[in-house]
User: Fold this.
Amino acid sequence: MDRRWTVSTATVLVVGLVPGVAAAETATARTGSPGAPGIGDTYYPLDGNGGYQVEHYDLDVRYDPATDALSATAAIRAVATQDLSSFNLDFVGLDISELTVDGAAATFERDAGELTVTPAQWLPVDSEFTVTVTYEGVPETIETALGTIAGFIHTDDGALVVGQPDVAATWFPANDHPLDAATFDVALTVPEGLEALSNGELVSTETADGLSTWRWAAAEPMAPYLAVVAIGEFDVRAYEEAGLRYWDAFDPDLFTTPSNPEDPASPTLGEIAEASLARQPEVLDWLAGLGGPYPFVTAGGIVDDSTDLRFALETQTRPIYSPFFFTDQVFGDLVVVHELAHQWFGDDLRLGAWQDIWLNEGFATYAEWLWLEKEGLATAQQVFDDSYATVPADDPFWTVLPGDPGPDALFDGAVYNRGAMTLHALRQVIGDETFFAVVRAWAESQAGDTVSTDEFVALAEELSGRQLDDLFDAWLYTQEKPALG
Ligand code: ARG
Ligand code: ZN
Assistant:
């Protein structure tokens, strides 16, 4: 503290500024300035925050399905990227009872999803600090642009936490943007008799006084929205294959629900889900041929019988699936391929901006086309031709730009299908050999990093030796059905 005064004073004396101005300027330098309330995403200006990067989240969550309430402590270890007088976390709803920075009480203010923390001591650039937040309440469910629900979904026997892009902040204070990935420890305490799943490795389960605690550790950094929770009755299966540890979870009710409600003798949703998830080792091995070695040390999938969950999500190391995907075996296999492809394209390679969502969805969808080809069910060319032929030029489908869909169309079918068509169009122009080299180089050169469309275009141009702006402009950024070359 004293030393800082001395340095500041010396600076003033040397520079010889007018005393009044100098006092104001050095005060800023001396105490830091507030971190930005957003990380700079054009679609979601308040998502994430500036001024620090999180290294680790340690979440200790107790959840009682009888009241829907959770009570939790989140310890967030971060490093300041500027001198900070205060900083923000994203946090929605829930009541904070205590908040400390490095063990000392800090003041805080809340305004909608922004939690502004002012530590007792300012935080110098590059310093590591830990903010600990104790809170409780009933988490909010999110209504999505698709008219479905996401976030904290209360089920008949527990809860699921799943969503994209905003979900983390509804259950823990976060730097909620894929630009800031961190490792996670998640401990879930639930009534004895229920199971509690999350990402990564199951470290321990303990039961005392009618409560069970499930401790999960995610060793590889992940974006906060990829943190998953599934609490309820689950048949949890742990196994190892090809050196990879799997934890799968199936709601037992799936095994009494026929996949075809009209036909009680049809296979159950559980049987189909089980058969699709049984192919995970094979799918991961096949995907490694596309994108290089699987980026994580654990894997698995979660299937609940919730009718409220209408989508699947590539939650890191352990995707979660709506039961509706498992009404048909091929459809079930394809969603597993899609979510596992995201482990490379979406999770290990993270978006620097949500605008570039096609880099996730176009790749995961194209992986499905390649899988159909590999299975001998259709060629990628046939899927492309069908998609192209069945959507007339005046269809609104062509007005959604995969490269800039806008926040309301982030998960529009065009982001998926026109995104995949973009990759196929690229493949046609640069040829199979170069195309698959580009995909592989993309996954390997950007492993563990954030990515942008411009970087992908640059890589494709570099490896093919061609100018590809026109192709990407036509497929990603033009509100017209592209002409076929
Ligand atoms: N990324 C997910 C998938 O393609 C889709 C998530 C849709 N999100 C939502 N909130 N509905 O598998
Ligand atoms: Zn997807």
